[in-house]
Amino acid sequence: MHLRRQMEQALEASDPGQAADRLWRQGHALMNMSRLFAGNGYRGDYQQVFHVLYSQHVETQRLLEAAAWGERLRRADRLVEQARKGPWTAATPAALASVLAECPWHAGAQALLRSAAAPDDDAVAVLRRRFRFRHEGLLRHKAITLPMALACDPVDGSLLVGDRNAGAVLRLDADGRRCGTVLGGLRDPRSLVFDADGSLWVAEMQGERLWRVGRDGRTRRFSLPELLPEGAPALPLSLAPVAGGLLVLLTRQHYTEVAMARLAGPDPLRVVAWQPVDCGMIWSIGAGGGGFLGYFRPVGPVLQSPDGFRWEPFSRVALPAPLRTGRQAEDGVFVLAGDSVVRLDLAGELVWSASLAHLLGRPSSPTDCALGRTSQGRRLYIVDTDLAAIHVLDV
User: Fold this and answer.
1) Strand locations in 133-199, DSSP E?
2) Are 139 and 157 in contact (CB under 8 A)?
3) Over the range 358-381, which residues count as b (16 or more CB within 10 Å of their CB) and which as e?
4) Which of 101, 203, 227, 282 can bridge 294 by disulfide, Cβ–Cβ 3.0-4.6 Å?
5) pTM score, whole prediction
6) For the chain, how big is the Rg over CA atoms in Å?
7) Can you spell out the DSSP letters for 308-352?
8) In what order do the strands lie in the sheet with 200-204?
9) pLDDT (tens digit, 0 to 9) for every residue of the chain, 395 residues total?
């Protein structure tokens, strides 16, 4: 507690370097204390003390990160205020871009970019497109309690939500008022995609099954152990549509092995290609741009592949946390990393990164996302397990 108080005092004195030193010392003390208790064989006491020390360490780390974020916001405020007071110059777009890359919802920067002071030229038009960002609120419904997967119906714009607690795929209308069950009795619905025919495919992870729901509401069930080679991983993590079938990312319990399968069908559904994926832990796949994108967990690059089997880096941007998933649009890629949503351009370069926790001022845990269009423009929908809700972003 003494070290934590020292760190708080350092933060109050606006000395992040000193606070970081206190954090390192606390982590060192934590490591030594855990070794001491483990070496002396006090298993019960060791577990309890280690838990207390670790909780304090995590809390002080959170305080340090909050202080660093506060300093970034103050720097952004200063830059925007300078740009607002002075005449628009050649340096103004670069200053606004530096602010919006870290904080795309910064109200002052967004207002200045759209104000009468901004010249009506190509450079400003590009900035307005690249940094278009507005959090339009949260969609909630009492039926949604642990959302894990999300898709947007290309026909009517409604949202399909895979809810683990409900064991079902739910259909939520665009305003969040009406909610109905599309498919029930599922064990961990983990991934939802629409194919070229408009049918919905569902990956039931713990059930080792795929489901197809046609536009007429008819459902078909496919057992993966019956389709795959004997002994192959059969827990479906993620789906991506391909011409005439699906690409399926597969794993075992505890994620000890990952493989990719290409399925053709559905009459009949059959495996046309299968192989282990030897490139670390790919957590999710998505289609777009003439190929496929793979998202690493733990921290790693966004990958690209022409066929889903041979992978190479798409982007080497240092992301704020482990990748969860992403979606590709016509002008870039939206990636979920920790509690942040990150936009990359088609060359893999960073456009902006937005922490949902900082935006909302409370913890956030996004798990999946989907792109859709409304009469007002493009929307990015993000399911959040902490909030049991869906973020709606105008991007």
Assistant:
1) 134-139, 147-152, 159-163, 168-172, 179-183, 189-194
2) no
3) bbbeeebebbbbbbbeeeeeebbb
4) 282
5) 0.82
6) 24
7) SSS-EEEE----SS-EEEEEEETTEEEEEETTEEEEE-TTS-EEE
8) 189-194, 200-204, 209-213, 219-223
9) 454 455 455 545 545 455 555 555 555 555 555 555 555 544 555 456 555 655 665 565 666 666 667 777 788 888 888 877 777 887 888 888 888 888 888 888 888 888 867 777 788 888 888 899 999 999 999 999 999 999 999 999 999 999 999 999 999 987 778 889 999 999 999 999 999 889 999 999 999 999 999 999 999 999 999 999 998 999 999 999 988 889 999 998 877 788 999 999 888 899 999 988 865 567 788 887 667 888 765 556 788 888 888 888 888 887 777 788 889 998 999 999 888 899 999 999 999 999 898 888 788 889 999 999 888 889 999 999 999 999 999 99
Residue with tokens 């004997």: 230
- Supply 353's token pair: 């990164």
* Cα distance from N-terminal residue to C-terminal residue, the chain: 44
Q: Is 243 helix (H, G, I), strand (E, B) or coil?
A: coil
Chain-centroid distance, C-alpha 365: 8
Nearest to 284 by CA among 160, 167, 367: 367
Q: Which residues, at least 6 apart from 198, have a Cβ–Cβ distance to it below 8 Å?
A: 154, 155, 215
